[in-house]
Amino acid sequence: MRIGIVCYPTYGGSGVLATELGKALADKGHMVHFITYQQPVRLNAFHANIYYHEVQVPTYPLFDFPPYESALSSTMVDVILNQKLDLLHVHYAIPHASTAYMAKQIVSKQGRVVPFITTLHGTDITLVGRDKTYAPIVTFSINESDAITAVSENLRDETYKYFQIEKDISVIYNFVDTQRFSRREMPHFRNAIAPNGEKILLHVSNFRKVKRVPDVVKVFAKVRQEIPSKLLLVGDGPDRPTIECLCRELGICEDVRFVGKQEQLEDVMSISDLFLLPSDYESFGLAALEAMAAQVPVISSNAGGLPEINIPGQTGYMSNVGDVDGMAAHAIKLLQDDALLAKLRKGALTQAQRFHINNIIPQYEALYEQVLQQQ
Ligand code: GMT
Fold it and tell me: Looking at beta carbons, which pairs linking 238-245 to residues 24 or more positions away fall under 8 Å?
């Protein structure tokens, strides 16, 4: 198939998932065309079946807000017609579903029928999409999609709850390449972070409010009182100054490392003992799944779709959102008990294997076939 993939190219679960999906489809012989405003972060190597089309957004003094959606739709039209795409698969509803709808209408005037599939990822529904400024267009463009997928049952249910959706939403879970994330011994790296054999706790996110990174720091401060440990914070975002202030207030700066946006996440995960994800909401929690693939148990909140991947006592533990004491107690219990830690590490890997890339990609391919047959 000739598939157009539209996503956000930046660090963030939806872009990562879309890029990994495109790479896996290309490995299976499909022609994959990425259409984004910047090279996606995980699209970092040449592949004979992968093409990249950058969306250019011309500016003009009249534009306080350059019309990105128009530029994106026009680029979609260009790629559909010139690369003879069979379908478009857009990730994150805003604005990708409405721009795909527009492109579909335009190419139909030239006799081309090109269906589009919309994958909902989380905040496009639960946070931004629900804002009344966006809700009408989100509802309309989801309903106009030829197929809709959500990355967890929770996200599917939330979508039905908040929007008038008249179509079926299929749940196709996020996936992980367990080979890539398989745990490797990296003593030099580990020693550089934890020279005295300290435990390493890890958090990876875009440091937005919804991630509750201050809770990560508070949990770590409690763990550190009981167990010599270090905290690795991977990523960056708007809450960073608040987080740095909190570290100073708690007097724990020398044990907290901000390592910024990292591409080699598998290395960071390989040296970690525990992954912390106390989010207000997570449709899925892709970073937690990648951590599990590296045999890192997860201490998380029980929000959104997290109970669909983090199984208490098997892959980690869960607490209510904001229950810093509960999360810290779980972390301390786990890090003090080598046998329990070993059991959960094994359980985490077993769980990651259920979401193996090879189990999930065929579900997308089957959906594409089904959509094409319906045209
Ligand atoms: O978590 C974010 O803020 C990024 C966001 C995105 O769209 O890039 O992530 C969402 O999609 C990921 C991939 O499907 C999910 O694993 C995340 O749970 C989801 N984030 C939220 O629901 C907050």
Answer: 238/207, 238/208, 238/209, 239/207, 239/208, 239/209, 239/211, 239/213, 239/214, 240/207, 242/213, 242/214, 243/207, 243/213, 243/214, 243/217
The domain spans of the chain are 2-175+356-373, 187-354
Is residue 238 within 8 A of residue 207, CB to CB? The reply is yes
Instruction: Classify the phi-psi angles of 237: left when phi > 0, otherwise alpha if psi is within -120 to 50, otherwise beta.
Output: left
Burial of 132 by CB count in 10 Å (0-12 exposed, 13-18 middle, 19+ buried)?
exposed
Q: Is 283 in the pocket of ligand 1 (CB under 6 A)?
A: yes
Q: Which of 41, 94, 121 to mutate to test the pocket of ligand 1 (most atoms within 8 A of CB)?
A: 121
Instruction: For 336-358, write each residue's pLDDT tens digit.
Output: 999 999 999 999 999 999 999 99
Q: For the segment 119-144, what is each residue's pLDDT rounded down to a tens digit?
A: 999 988 988 888 999 999 999 999 99
Cα(334)–Cα(236) distance, integer angstroms = 28
CB 303 near ligand 1, within 6 Å: no
Architecture of domain 2-175+356-373: 3-Layer(aba) Sandwich (3.40)
With respect to CATH, is domain 187-354 assigned 3.10.180.10? no
* Closest ligand 1 atom to Cα of 280: 23
Bridge partners of 87, per DSSP, are: 3
Tens of pLDDT, residues 74-84: 999 999 999 99
